[in-house]
Amino acid sequence: MFDLPGSWVWDFWFADDGEQYHLFFLYASRALKDPDARHYRASIGHAVSTDLVSWTQVADALVRSDGPAFDDLATWTGSIVRHPDGTWFLFYTGSTLAAHGKNVQRIGYATSSDLHVWTKAPGPVLEAAAPWYETLESDAWHDEAFRDPWVFADPDGDGWHMLVTARAPHGPADGRGVVGHARSWDLRRWELRPPLSVPSPRGFGQLEVTQVEVVDGRPVLLFSCLAEHASAARRGTPGGTWAVPAESLTGPFDVDAAYPVTDDSLYVGRLLRRRDDGQWLLFAFRNAGPDGSFVGGISDPMPVAWRHGRLTVEAGLAPATENGTAAIASH
């Protein structure tokens, strides 16, 4: 488990340099008192490990920029890939406040030669735009959702893809969450594309922190959404991390087919394949305790497998939290 006694730790992502695993995570001081205040004080921390269980914190990766800037409020969730020339790219969400106080999110990146020292590129490379994506002008949501970039190489070697937490400009307000999409051929310049899913009355208001992987030969999409941000048709299911069966890493994705992998005690599930034995593992941050209060901190690895056509955390192997045993969604 990774925890910081003086800080809340939540969203996270990994990089593997072949010798060490690198954990990048959002954190903010518990001196804020109110866990909800953490979002506007988030920095991107960094820790390293050789076994995915014991972690050593090292120097932070990124902090917010001085204003005015697209990331002058906070630096939020991202992902890391390596360019063929050896350069590491950290794609992240930059948050700022619009004139009327609502949050606007855009995507930027930083580069590094060693995963430790990062240099931000000037300005964002992507933002929400018509006709495919909802912006603040619609006034249908509490922010302009365009965040959590998940970047991966095209399976056929044709450049790069980015998945983004975004919303469509049409459909029921609580079902407009879509898998945003962009393409690049050099990781520096990006072209916005139509979403890879469609809004639905059985959908979600937001599909947070998407990830696609081929797990034991089967493509799967992961995302996270809590009950209060799901459609009315979904609110009886206490989901945290959700999975969607997929035909390929590039979709399209049938969000109506989503099923929970964890309940809301665990959030932002991330898949990682262990280097030494190829075992796929799920990590998540500890979200809600028994009393509903925010916990924080990142779980130990949880092995996953396909059971009856669904990606499932292996029974009995969930980590213990400070409030008891983390719950796994029943199937």
TrEMBL record:
Signal peptide: none annotated. Keywords: Glycosidase, Hydrolase. InterPro entries: Fructan_Metab_Enzymes (IPR050551), Glyco_hydro_32 (IPR001362), Glyco_hydro_32_N (IPR013148), Glyco_hydro_beta-prop_sf (IPR023296). Residues 19-224 form the Glycosyl hydrolase family 32 N-terminal domain. The keyword Hydrolase applies. One of its GO terms (molecular function) is hydrolase activity. SUPFAM superfamilies: Arabinanase/levansucrase/invertase (SSF75005). Pfam families: Glyco_hydro_32N. SMART domains: Glyco_32 (SM00640). Belongs to the glycosyl hydrolase 32 family. PANTHER family: BETA-FRUCTOFURANOSIDASE, INSOLUBLE ISOENZYME CWINV1-RELATED. This is Glycosyl hydrolase family 32. It comes from Microbacterium alkaliflavum. The lineage of its organism: Bacteria, Bacillati, Actinomycetota, Actinomycetes, Micrococcales.
